[in-house]
Write a structure and sequence with these properties.
Radius of gyration of chain C: 12 Å
Largest sheet of chain A: 10 strands, mixed
Strand content of chain A: 15-25%
Strand order of the largest sheet of chain A: 1-10-9-6-2-3-4-5-24-25
Oligomer: heterotrimer
Largest sheet of chain C: 4 strands, mixed
Radius of gyration of chain A: 23 Å
Number of helices of chain C: 2
Helix content of chain C: 25-40%
Number of strands of chain A: 25
Structural class of chain C: alpha+beta
Order of helices and strands of chain C: EEEHEH
Number of helices of chain A: 15
Largest interface: B-C, 23 and 27 residues
Helix content of chain A: 25-40%
Chains: A alpha/beta, B alpha/beta, C alpha+beta
Shape of chain A: globular
Strand content of chain C: 15-25%
Chain lengths: 522, 301, 100
């Protein structure tokens, strides 16, 4: 069945009440009952929930074939938790596991082999990269992977679509009863936002830490009342990869030129006023926008009411200068952000549901004025792909992209027109992760295009004498430079499902055909 | 005379002709000119390779309004003749003569250019020249260099080699280059050609760069050689005329043209005597203003 | 032109391509590895074949390691490698056998 953005969704996927995507607000007002976890009471007073090992925790939780386990990705590429838990699961001979992670990265390459061996047969995640991405793209996973945005993942949990049997939560500090925090240990990640829904909705919850601290570890991100057992290990991750020393601000002239154009676009719209709100991605040009906003804010004598998202130094700097009133934080990318959260009186941790869940009673993203986001590809309908490479292989993560884009009054995509020989602006993206309906402005190194649905923004840019072009003209320009790409060749088999944030089906990723040297000898 | 000879050249951005990632679209940063470098930026054993990529860049990449200058290897090398051939064949707008020492150097290159224009069927005279003065001798011969060829649109001083010859180094304030800058400016103005200052190599010292460009403008330079797109904006901002200068230039151009139509050569405007000699300066101000996005009026040079 | 000895041109930098030409007894073989193989492998092959034909190379083994080079860069590197293999660095037929 063809959905609202022209993507063909195979009918066999439309079982159990699943629907195709019908537009961002299709499910507005829908009623549902939040599911409750099956809880085993801890009535008898006990001094400690600490168990001997990860293996013992797995056994105590009754984990068995076919169950679903969950993880969070606050440790990013420094994460040791997923691999060490899965290694024990495999050693116990348990098979057919579904991994439901907030995201997975190249740190998790060893899982690719478990996919081949049938230990892991399902994946529900935001990101798939590295060897795991290749394995899934090659059709090695038994069931199609389900890809969701951060908001979409919490929605799936809170609506009962994703049931977690055992949540494994890595925590930088934890007490013997399970009160866990993102700080206070040797591998601090700042916040535990992605794990909050897991703790509340999973049947069993295991906290794994490398810093056992005296009770009570307060204020906790994960509360002991939700935790079944605690495991102490030598290391939960590589601190250097969990929080970067300093996210180096790009010096690339192309990135800076685009970042400046984004700031100018923002400043030309009516929402750039005292009290505005803002989110930006962690990519080079997106992050650099902060630097160009500062002088514009000072010049106009305005401040930002709140900033949200993954947080890093540029945001913290603006907070410390008094140019931002409040920072709400769902992930920290560098030491500056880790140090600031909970310490600065206006820098707060929030849950991912508060951040971005479209099906609760109103998430933060719904009140955003601006968001600046990157893209691997964007097509002439403004549909954005951030999950598959232009070679059709899974190598990215929607993350909060579709959530912030849908919520913000002005969503700006910033990307170079071409990367190497690949056209970023193209006829039709490989996979849609964020529908064009959510995207308002495209800023490239070759010009700016406004979504025709946003005549108000076009008029604002014209009034500010910011020249614009059409996205079709940008696509033509890209193809003139690099040539028109040959279409990718896929098998029929669906290897991953891209869910819209409301749970409807936005797109599917099909198995890529093996690469052959065209022509051979001449 | 080639109409492009006196075009606006506030920024001339160096790019290695050996680096496709730089050459494929440097025009997006909108310098007035780019300078594809076959000389110092290209290793001795890659000179041939750089020429092939230069040729295809000149032919295949549309630089639009951005002028394409090529710095060729010095006349004391075995490379410069083939460099001239590829520049002319590819249709470069101009050739920068590295280590230009005297008028004969310009004439030597000019002869090679004429020959290449014949060989490749190009319009005679379309390839312009500029001289890079890199030694005390070159600087002292500035005037004869400036007047050596009809094709020569300007001269530039090259600070790196020059400072070494003078047994000095970069100083904030530019005392070490003061005499040379002044001398080549005098020569260029006397000959009626353009004059460009050397590169500023510390990309992290934007304040030092700004101070040097400000001094360049105050001394009367037409523009500056630059090494990164990050330097473009500073130069264009500093070289942009003020609103007052633009209004005054507009009035002068109008008044001179109106009086000329009436057959009046000398007249007064706001109590100051004006004649046709004020026209080029005023027109230049308007051209700068237009390029800086500050003037959209109807007056054209 | 005749491929007299092995020659290399280009680099492994982004947007560049490294081209190696080697003598071959008969015919032309083109081996391409590219980061953009699925979308541009066919076009890269065509550009290489055209360029060799224009240079009148009848037999050669050509290997490309492509890092996303544009057609104009591929032409430049193939030409450079061919001229190097025949020992010519001057008097290049610009606009003749060497052209867009």
């Amino acid at each position: 069945m063809i959905n609202a953005i022209g993507r063909d969704i195979p009918d066999e996927l439309l079982a159990n009440g699943r629907e195709v995507f019908r537009g961002n607000n299709h499910r507005d007002g829908r009623e549902y009952v939040r599911p409750g976890p099956r809880v085993r009471a801890h009535v008898r007073p006990q001094e400690s929930k600490v168990v001997e090992s990860i293996r013992e925790a797995i056994v105590r939780c009754g984990l068995r074939d076919g169950m679903t386990v969950s993880f969070h990705h606050h440790f990013r590429d420094g994460d040791y938790i997923v691999n060490s838990v899965m290694k024990e699961i495999e050693a116990l001979g348990i098979r057919g596991i579904t991994i439901a992670a907030s995201s997975l990265g190249s740190a998790h390459d060893p899982i690719a082999q478990m996919i081949e061996d049938g230990v892991v047969t399902g994946l529900q995640t935001s990101g798939i990269r590295g060897r795991m991405g290749e394995a899934v793209s090659a059709g090695k996973l038994r069931t199609p992977a389900i890809l969701r945005s951060h908001g979409g993942r919490v929605r799936a949990i809170e609506e009962g679509e994703l049931h977690i049997d055992v949540a494994f939560i890595g925590a930088p500090s934890c007490d013997e009863y399970g009160n866990a925090r993102g700080k206070g240990g040797k591998s601090d990640c700042g916040v535990l936002s992605y794990a909050m829904a897991d703790a509340r909705y999973a049947d069993k919850v295991v906290v794994i830490t490398d810093a056992l601290v005296p009770f009570p570890n307060f204020p906790p991100s994960i509360e002991a009342v939700d935790v079944d057992c605690v495991v102490v290990v030598d290391a939960i991750g590589d601190p250097a990869k969990i929080a970067s020393q300093a996210l180096r601000m790009t010096q690339d002239p192309r990135d800076l030129m685009m970042a400046e154009a984004c700031a100018r676009v923002m400043a030309a719209t009516p929402w750039f006023r005292d009290g505005y709100s803002f989110q930006t991605g962690a990519g080079g040009p997106s992050l650099a926008v902060n630097r160009f906003l500062e002088p514009l804010m000072v010049e106009r004598g305005i401040t930002m009411r709140w900033a949200i998202g993954g947080i890093s130094r540029p945001t913290v700097d603006l907070l410390n200068k008094g140019l931002i009133h409040t920072v709400v934080d769902a992930q920290d990318f560098d030491i500056a952000a880790v140090n600031s959260v909970h310490e600065h009186p206006r820098h707060f941790e929030i849950s991912t549901s508060q951040y971005a869940n479209p099906m609760n009673k109103g998430a933060f993203v719904n009140k955003l004025d601006f968001v600046i986001l990157a893209a691997l590809e964007i097509d002439t309908d403004f549909n954005v792909n951030v999950v598959t490479g232009s070679d059709g292989i899974l190598r990215g993560a929607p993350g909060g992209h579709p959530d912030a884009a849908a919520g913000a009054k002005c969503t700006i995509i910033v990307t170079p027109l071409v990367r190497g020989r690949m056209p970023t602006v193209c006829e039709r993206v490989v996979t849609v992760t964020t529908p064009g309906e959510s995207v308002d402005v495209l800023v490239t190194d070759y010009g700016i295009a406004v979504n025709p649905a946003r005549q108000d923004i076009s008029a604002a840019l014209e009034a500010a004498r910011i020249p614009t072009t059409t996205i079709g003209a940008l696509k033509d320009r890209a193809y003139a430079i690099v040539g028109t790409p040959d279409p990718l060749e896929f098998e029929d088999r669906v290897v991953a499902i891209m869910e819209a944030r409301d749970g409807t089906l936005l797109d599917v990723v099909r198995q890529i055909k093996p690469l052959q040297q065209p022509g051979g000898s001449n | 005379m080639n109409a492009k000879k006196n075009r606006l050249r506030r920024t001339m951005m160096f790019l290695s002709a050996q680096r496709p990632s730089l050459m494929k679209d440097a025009y997006i940063y909108r310098p007035d000119s780019v300078m594809f470098d076959l000389e110092d930026a290209v290793a001795e054993n890659q000179k041939d390779s750089a020429r092939f990529s230069l040729y295809h860049t000149l032919r295949a990449v549309d630089y639009g309004a951005v002028e394409r200058v090529v710095r060729i290897n010095g006349l004391d090398t075995p490379h410069w003749r083939e460099d001239v051939r590829v520049c002319v064949a590819g249709g470069a707008d101009a050739i920068r003569i590295a280590k230009c020492e005297c008028a004969q150097d310009v004439r030597t290159v000019e002869a090679a250019v004429e020959e290449a224009e014949r060989e490749f069927g190009r319009t005679p005279g379309e390839t312009l020249l500029m001289g890079a003065l890199e030694s005390p001798r070159g600087v002292l011969n500035a005037l004869e260099i400036c007047t050596a060829s009809e094709r020569l649109f300007g001269i530039a001083i090259s600070g790196g080699d020059f400072r070494k010859c003078m047994q000095t180094a970069y100083r904030p304030g530019g005392i070490e280059m003061l005499a040379a800058r002044g001398h080549i400016l005098l020569a260029a103005r006397a000959a009626g050609v353009q004059c460009f200052d050397t590169v500023f190599t510390d990309l992290d010292d934007m304040e030092g760069f700004r101070a040097e460009v400000l001094q360049n403008k105050e001394m009367g330079f037409d523009g500056k050689s630059i090494i990164s797109p990050r330097q473009i904006r500073v130069v264009h901002e500093i070289f942009a005329p003020t609103e007052k200068e633009i209004r005054q230039a507009e009035r002068i151009v109008r008044a001179i043209r109106e009086n000329a139509d009436k057959g009046v050569g000398v007249f007064t405007l706001d109590g100051k005597m004006l004649d046709i000699a004020f026209l080029p300066g005023a027109e230049r101000t308007l051209a700068l203003a237009r390029a800086s996005g500050l003037y959209e009026g109807e007056l054209q040079p | 032109m005749e491929i007299l000895r092995p020659a290399v041109a280009g680099s492994l930098e982004s947007s560049d391509v490294q081209v190696t030409v080697e003598p071959e007894r008969e015919g032309i073989s083109i081996d391409i590895s590219s980061s953009v193989m699925r979308q541009y492998g066919r076009q890269i092959r065509n550009v290489v074949a055209e360029t060799l034909e224009r240079l009148e190379v009848r037999s050669a083994r050509v290997t490309l390691v492509d890092k996303g080079a544009l057609d104009c860069t591929i032409r430049a590197r193939v030409e450079c490698a061919v001229f190097r293999s025949s020992g010519r660095t001057e008097g290049i037929p610009w606009g003749g056998a060497v052209r867009e």
